[in-house]
Design a protein that fits this description.
Number of strands: 0
Length: about 290
């Protein structure tokens, strides 16, 4: 049986550090695939955006944003998930005493969807600015992350501090629109597969390997279904001027047709499938070690 040590850091401290380690590990290990995906989705075209050259362009911003973004996601996810579970158990206890149905079959996946969505909103506070800087370097608009950041900050004289803020958070809404459906698909699937495996094995917690395999499957499914939103997000972040999501969607549809919204599907599914294995496998390993699960 799996045992959990009573000493050591709290589950939320463990989620903080495990998430930070997982985010940094996956972003650095799969960064070249992310670069190729960005260039395939660029309106300038794959080769004008850099082709296969300099696939680590913009990696500096990824290093800066990975750990805090992933840590924010997991501490929010675990905290909201716990609160919702306690609330459900309290409600179900009252219903059980009154002889009414508890509705547990559907409640747990919904809790995971809500918790993951809340985690993504929190993480995007860090992720969006680093994505803006990173993708402009990846698409060869600037030679490095630092050059892309300097270019944005230098616009303060013309657009003011608020304008710079808005530029750094360009694509915020579409990023949230992409990430919330993505996590609402990925995390309930991941949690459901882990729960199924725990019932089969009789253990109270999943191993890092199991978590990685299930994370890969769930990530691939979610990545494929949300590719059109990812294309729209990339185009918004790379555009020379701010554009409304609906008008940009209409322009892409008119100029390139529906197939444009599946640009980068292969690299995206490959990247997120591999990333899901590394990210959620690393997270589970670190979480298990820090909470004393053996």
């Amino acid at each position: 049986m799996t045992s959990i040590s009573s000493s050591g850091p709290s589950p939320f401290t463990s989620a903080l550090f495990a998430g930070a380690l997982a985010g940094t590990t996956v972003d650095l290990s799969l960064y070249p695939i992310d670069t190729l995906k960005t260039r395939l989705q660029s309106s300038a075209g794959f080769y004008p955006s850099g082709g296969f050259r300099g696939v680590y362009a913009g990696v500096g911003s990824a290093i800066v944003g990975s750990a805090p973004g992933a840590a924010l996601f997991f501490i929010t996810y675990e905290k909201v998930k716990l609160r919702l579970r306690l609330l459900r158990e309290n409600v179900d206890g009252n219903r059980s005493r009154s002889g009414r149905s508890t509705g547990e079959k559907w409640a747990e996946p919904v809790e995971h969807m809500i918790a993951a969505s809340a985690g993504e909103v929190a993480a995007c506070a860090v992720r969006v600015p680093t994505e803006v800087v990173k993708q402009r370097a990846q698409a060869a608009q600037h030679p490095s992350s630092m050059a892309a950041l300097h270019f944005i900050l230098a616009q303060r004289a013309n657009i003011g501090a608020l304008g710079v803020w808005r530029e750094m958070y360009r694509g915020w809404a579409i990023t949230i629109t992409r990430e919330v459906p993505f996590t609402a698909i990925q995390f309930p699937l991941w949690e459901a597969m882990k729960s199924w495996r725990r019932r089969k094995s009789g253990r109270s917690q999943s191993s890092a390997f199991e978590s990685g395999v299930f994370g890969s499957i769930a990530g691939a499914v979610a990545a494929g279904l949300t590719t059109p939103l990812d294309v729209l997000k990339t185009r918004m972040m790379l555009a020379k001027e701010r554009q409304a999501a609906l008008s940009l969607f209409a322009r892409i549809w008119k100029e390139s047709g529906p197939k444009a919204f599946m640009a980068g599907l292969g690299p995206r599914v490959m990247w997120i499938s591999g990333g899901g294995a590394i990210f959620l496998g690393t997270y589970q390993w670190a979480f298990n070690v820090m909470t004393g699960i053996t």
